[in-house]
Design brief:
alpha/beta; Rossmann fold; 6-stranded parallel beta sheet; about 40% helix
Length: about 575
C-alpha cells in the first residue's frame, strides 16, 4: 500500500517490512499481536502471508522454530515489545541450542527514550538482552535499511550451524515514510544464504582410515543429520559398510527404527564396547554423557562430522574431525570409501543382534502385561498399534517418563517426523511444535504429552481448534510431575510439590473450544479413541488416565537431579 504526498508515492516501514518478508519467501508468521505490531500482521495477511495467532509468544516461537527445522528456511515469530519479547525469548534460545533456523521479530520502544532510561511504555533494551541467547541480533532503525536487515537475519539463521536470530523493529521505524519507488528498489533476496561447505580431503581420508581399523564400529545419528536431510547418504554409508547405527531421539526415522542395523535396543552394549564411533550431526553433550563415564568404552576413538569447527574436542578429543555440511561430507566420504575396504565384522553384528533379541523379549513383556490402572507401557502399546497405520504422521513428544518411554516404544519410519524436547530437554514445546508441524506440512500430528508438560502450553488447544488443525493430543495423566502419589512430607493439607489435580479432565478443555474429547482408562478404550480421532482429522484430545504411582523421578536422567543428603522427614499421621 502506498500513500501520495505532493504527487510522490510514499510507503512506510510497516508495509516495506512485509514486502521484504514476502520477497524472501515467507509464507507464514506465528505470533501474538499488540502494540506496536498489530497492523503489521494485518498487512501480512493482506498480501497473502498466513498469520497464525497464538495465546502465548513462547508457543508461537516454538512453532516458528520447528517450521525452520522442517523446511531449512527460518520460521518467523512476531511479538510485541518487552514482556512479549521476553516470552518469545525462551523459544529463540531453544532454537539456537537445537540448531533450528528461526527469526523473532519484535516491536520495540524508541531508542532515544530507552537509551536514557526515561520509562517508555514496555520499554526494554531488547536487542542487547537477546544477544546472549541468539546466534545474531540486529536492530532496524530506518525503513531504508529493512531489506539489508531482513537479508542479514536470514543469512545468519540458516548459514553454518543454524540458529535463532533476533530482529528488533522500532515503533518509530514502522511509521516512518519513504519514497515508494526507492523502497521497492531497495528490496532483494540474499543469494545462496546457506552455501555448501565441503570437508578437507585429508580429514576425510583420516576418518575413513580410522573407520576401516575398527573392530566394533558404531554410527551415531543426531538431529543435525536429520535437519540436513541426509537420509539417502546415511542409508548408503550404513548399508554399504554394515555398521550398526544408534539414532538420537530426533534422528529416529532417518533410517527406520526396524532397520536390521539399528542398535537402539542394544544401546548399552554398543556404547560400552564400541571402539570407533562416528558422530553424524550429533554432539557429545549431556545427552551422550559428554562421551565419558562408565557407559563408554574408555578406549573409544571418535570421528565427528559437524558443520561447526568449534564443536570438535568440546568434551573429548576427536581423533578424526570432519568439518563441513553433513550431506557434502557424507558424499565425499562415500565417494572415497571403496579405497579403504570398510566392513563391519560379523562377530560384532552377531553380538548386537543377540542383545537386541533378548531385550525385545523383555520389552514385549512390559508392553503386554495388563495393569489396572494403565501404566506407560501398556498405554503406549495401544498408541503404537494404531500408529502402525499412520507411518507418515508427525509425532510430538514431551514429558519426563512420557518422553523416555514413548521414544523406546513407538517406532519411527520416516525422517523428521519425531519432534521432541531436543538439546535442552525443555518442556513446553508440545503445542507450538504440533501447530508448527501441522501448518508447515498440512499433515496430521499426534502429540503425546505428559500431564505436567501439557500444562506449559495447554491453552493452545484453542489455537488448534480456531485454525481447524489436524492435531490429536494424548495426555498421559498420572496426576503429577513424574507421578501423582507423592506425600506432603510436612503432613499438611497442601499437595506435594510434584502433585497435580487428581482426576483432572483435560479432555474438557478442548471440548470447550469445539474439539473432539475422549476420556479413557483402559488400553482398548485408548486404542478405539485414537483410531476415531485420527480418522476424523479434527482437533482432538484424549485424556489417558494412568496409575498415579507409576513414573520415575526425573525419568531416565534422575542422576542429574540432586537429592538431599539428609533423610527426609516421614509424613505425619492424622
Amino acid at each position: 500500500m502506498n500513500y501520495i504526498t505532493d504527487n510522490a508515492p510514499l510507503t512506510d516501514g510497516m508495509h516495506l517490512l512485509v514486502d521484504a518478508l514476502k520477497r524472501n519467501g515467507v509464507e507464514t508468521i506465528y505470533g501474538v499481536v499488540g502494540i506496536p505490531v498489530t497492523d503489521l500482521a494485518r498487512h501480512a495477511q493482506e498480501v497473502g502471508i498466513r498469520y497464525i495467532g497464538f495465546r502465548h509468544e513462547q508457543s508461537a516461537g516454538n512453532a516458528a522454530a520447528v517450521s525452520g527445522y522442517l523446511t531449512q528456511k527460518p520460521g518467523i515469530c512476531l511479538t510485541v515489545s518487552a514482556p512479549g519479547f521476553l516470552n518469545g525469548l525462551t523459544a529463540l534460545a531453544c532454537a539456537t541450542q537445537n540448531g533450528f533456523p528461526m527469526i523473532q521479530i519484535s516491536g520495540s520502544s524508541d531508542r532515544n527514550i530507552i537509551d536514557l532510561q526515561q520509562g517508555d511504555y514496555e520499554g526494554l533494551d531488547q536487542m542487547n538482552i537477546a544477544k546472549p541467547f541468539a546466534k545474531a541480533a540486529y536492530r532496524i532503525n530506518r525503513p531504508e535499511d529493512i531489506a539489508v536487515g531482513v537479508a542479514r537475519a536470514i543469512r545468519a539463521a540458516v548459514s553454518g550451524r543454524p540458529g535463532g536470530v533476533y530482529l528488533d523493529i522500532t515503533t518509530a521505524m514502522l511509521s516512518t515514510t519513504m519514497d515508494a519507488e526507492a523502497a521497492a528498489a531497495s528490496l532483494f533476496t540474499p543469494i545462496d544464504p546457506a552455501p555448501k561447505q565441503y570437508p578437507c580431503s585429508n580429514a576425510v581420508k583420516r576418518a575413513l582410515k580410522l573407520l576401516a581399523s575398527a573392530k566394533k564400529p558404531l554410527i551415531i545419528l543426531g538431529k543435525g543429520a536429520a535437519y540436513a536431510q541426509a537420509e539417502n547418504q546415511v542409508r548408503t554409508l550404513v548399508e554399504e559398510t554394515g555398521i550398526p547405527f544408534l539414532p538420537m531421539s530426533m534422528a529416529k526415522g532417518l533410517l527406520p527404527d526396524d532397520h536390521p542395523q539399528c542398535a537402539a535396543s542394544a544401546r548399552s552394549l554398543v556404547l560400552g564396547q564400541g571402539d570407533v564411533v562416528m558422530l553424524i550431526g550429533a554432539r557429545l553433550n549431556w545427552l551422550l554423557t559428554h562421551g565419558k563415564g562408565k557407559k563408554w568404552n574408555p578406549a573409544v576413538q571418535f570421528i565427528q562430522l559437524d558443520i561447526e569447527p568449534e564443536e570438535m574436542d568440546s568434551n573429548r578429543p576427536i581423533a578424526a574431525p570432519v568439518v563441513g555440511d553433513i550431506v557434502s561430507s557424507l558424499e565425499v566420504m562415500i565417494a572415497k570409501m571403496d579405497n579403504f575396504n570398510i566392513q563391519c565384522p560379523k562377530e560384532w553384528r552377531d553380538a548386537i543382534d543377540t542383545v537386541k533379541q533378548t531385550n525385545a523379549v523383555k520389552m514385549q513383556a512390559k508392553l503386554t502385561t495388563p495393569t489396572s490402572p494403565m501404566n506407560y507401557f501398556n498405554a503406549l502399546k495401544a498408541v503404537s498399534d494404531v500408529m502402525q497405520g499412520y507411518k507418515d504422521i508427525y509425532l510430538v513428544n514431551e514429558g519426563a517418563n512420557t518422553l523416555d518411554d514413548t521414544r523406546n516404544v513407538v517406532n519411527m519410519y520416516r525422517p523428521r517426523l519425531r519432534l521432541d524436547t531436543g538439546t535442552w530437554g525443555v518442556m513446553g514445546i508440545g503445542m507450538g511444535y504440533a501447530i508448527g508441524a501441522a501448518v508447515t506440512s498440512g499433515k496430521q500430528v499426534i502429540a503425546i504429552e505428559g500431564d505436567s508438560a501439557f500444562g506449559f502450553s495447554g491453552m493452545e488447544v484453542e489455537t488448534i481448534c480456531r485454525y481447524h488443525l489436524p492435531v490429536t493430543i494424548v495426555v498421559m495423566n498420572n496426576g503429577g510431575i513424574y507421578r501423582g502419589n507423592d506425600p506432603n512430607l510436612g503432613g499438611g493439607a497442601d499437595p506435594s510439590p510434584t502433585s497435580l489435580t487428581p482426576d483432572a479432565r483435560y479432555d474438557k478443555m478442548i471440548e470447550a473450544f469445539g474439539g473432539m474429547a475422549y476420556h479413557v482408562t483402559t488400553p482398548d478404550e485408548l486404542r478405539t479413541a485414537l483410531t476415531d480421532a485420527l480418522a476424523s482429522r479434527k482437533p482432538s484430545l484424549i485424556n489417558c488416565v494412568i496409575d498415579p504411582a507409576v513414573g520415575t523421578e526425573s525419568g531416565h536422567i534422575g542422576n542429574l537431579n540432586p537429592k538431599s543428603s539428609l533423610s527426609p522427614t516421614p509424613p505425619k499421621e492424622g
